[in-house]
Amino acid sequence: MLLKSRVLLKKKFLIPLFFLLLFSRQMVVGQDRNTIELGHFISVHSTILNEERSILVSLPDSYNDPSKTDQLYPIIILLDGYVHFKTTLAIVHFLGSRTNRNYLMPETIVVAIENVDRERDFTITKLQTKRANTMGGGKKFLDFIETELIPYVDNHYRAAPHRTLIGHSLGGLLTVNAYLDPNSLFDAYLAIDPSIWWDETTMESKLASMTLTSINKKLYWATANQGETNYEKNKKRHDRFVAMMGERWDDKLQVKHDYFEKENHRSVPLPALYEGLKYLNETHE
């Protein structure tokens, strides 16, 4: 059984050498030799959302290598794109770049979606509030990703048919909801401190009807330490939800759950991305 839960106590991720190597040697140097290009912007019109969406795209080091013109690359769809783009890109390069020769994951195209309305796009259900709200548009947003954005990426880049969804907080909530959906186009999911308190009842009903389609996919779940005040709201809920999946599916489940005791909700994305991408790309003989 791949379901695990552990406490990460002593790992230090903010190592200056890590970032020195990443940003001084691995990024693509611009044509004028005076700039370092991390990626580029594209604009994708969404008929489903009735708006233009701004997307950040980063291509692997070898993408423009003349000897690699037939190579296809898996893609990461990253929520809260602008916030997590540089961090995710650095870790992806560190784990998979030919420069480092780590080979812990393949070189990957990173596709980061900039935000317009997080509450609208990342929540499946609407909460009752005194103020007017736009909540509950998560299903439409996933439809935009799967039927508009991914086809755009497939048509404009050499994308392999392997896709990973990454989200933090409300983005993590949407990531778990996508994992529970048997029709999801993603192959792997990385949920960072997901806000499942938003609608735990609906999520548990989805869990009860999970199929082998979801079970055969990998999910990495990171939980932050939000303190005693939020223990019931956060960690206890996470532990219970992951345990319910384990009890239902036992050794068939491909879920790894890590608790980062030394990290809070804001600091947890960095170590979670590192550990999560390593797990999602592990292969077993």
Description:
The chain has helices at about 15-25, 80-95, 120, 140-155, 170-180, 200-210, 210-215, 235-250, 270-280, and strands at about 5, 30, 35, 40-45, 50-60, 75-80, 110-115, 160-170, 190, 220-225, 255-260. The radius of gyration is 19 Å and the shape is globular. It has a nine-stranded mixed β-sheet, with helices on both faces. It is about 35% helix and about 20% strand. Strand 10 (about 220-225), helix 8 and strand 11 form a beta-alpha-beta unit. It has about 280 residues and is an alpha/beta fold. The chain is built from nine helices and eleven strands. The chain has a single domain (about 5-10, about 45-125, about 135-280), classed as Alpha/Beta hydrolase fold, catalytic domain (Rossmann fold), CATH 3.40.50. Residues about 5-30 have low confidence and may be disordered.
